[in-house]
Amino acid sequence: VTVASMVPARIERMPAGTGDTVQAGDPLVILNDGPFQAALTKSRAAASSARSKLAETEIILEREKHRAGPVADQYEAEWTATKAHVNAALADREHALSNLKRAELLLQSGLIAESELEATRMTAQRRKAELEEARERVNKAAAGVRMEDNLHPVRIQHQKVATARAELALAEAE
Questions:
Q1: Is residue 171 within 8 Å of 132, Cβ to Cβ?
Q2: Is 164 exposed, middle or buried (0-12, 13-18, 19+ CB in 10 A)?
Q3: Could you give the CA distance from residue 135 to residue 143 in angstroms, rounded to a whole number?
Q4: CB count, 10 Å around CB of 155?
Q5: pLDDT digits (tens, 9 = 90+) for 105-152
Q6: Cβ neighbours of residue 138 under 8 Å, at least 6 residues apart?
Q7: Buried-state track 78-93, b at ≥16 Cβ within 10 A, e below 16
Q8: What's the chain's average pLDDT?
Q9: How far apart are CA 103 and CA 116, in angstroms?
Q10: What pLDDT digit, counting tens, does each position of 42-63 carry?
Q11: What is the distance of C-alpha 56 from the center of its chain?
């Protein structure tokens, strides 16, 4: 019987010796898991710290939104709607590209006319332009809030919350 470890580690002790009779499930070798336990503790601490940071940034975001007043709610609603529009335009563009690829294959097989392919190609180009326009609206919406505007702290805190969420996801994945 060949015995091997899935991870490199030092042998701490060997409860079963050469020639001993063992039952299924009996430990043959006990490995030193100190480094693994330390890494696990470190990862758990990093995840806990990331959760705390996220909670703190979310609290600060709410405070900044309160300071900015109703205009912050309007900004957030407009920002959400603008991002939703981009996502919809992106989905439309992907769908149009898929239709274009399908139409190209159908044309090669002689199942559609060249004019149908051209119409599909034009739709794909229109969807690309709509996506670019939606992305431009996002850029304009972001640029529309000036540094001295009372929404600037809200925008910064939104970015910090997004960063904290990403850091938490990374810490929990480790």
A1: no
A2: buried
A3: 12
A4: 19
A5: 999 999 999 999 999 999 999 999 999 999 888 777 766 655 446 677
A6: 82, 83, 86
A7: ebeebeebbeebeebb
A8: 88
A9: 8
A10: 999 999 999 999 999 999 998 9
A11: 20
Query: Which residue shows structure tokens 């640029």?
Result: 143
Question: Residue 76 corresponds to which amino acid?
Answer: E
> 57: how many CB neighbours lie within 10 A of its CB?
19
Distance CA 115, CA 123 (A): 12
Using the structure block, give the residue that is written with the tokens 């919809």: 88
Query: Which tokens belong to 154?
Result: 């809200």
The structure tokens listed for 63 are: 């405070």
The per-residue DSSP string of 33-83 comes to -HHHHHHHHHHHHHHHHHHHHHHHHHHHHHHHHHHHTHHHHHHHHHHHHHH
Do the beta carbons of residue 120 and residue 100 sit within 8 Å? yes
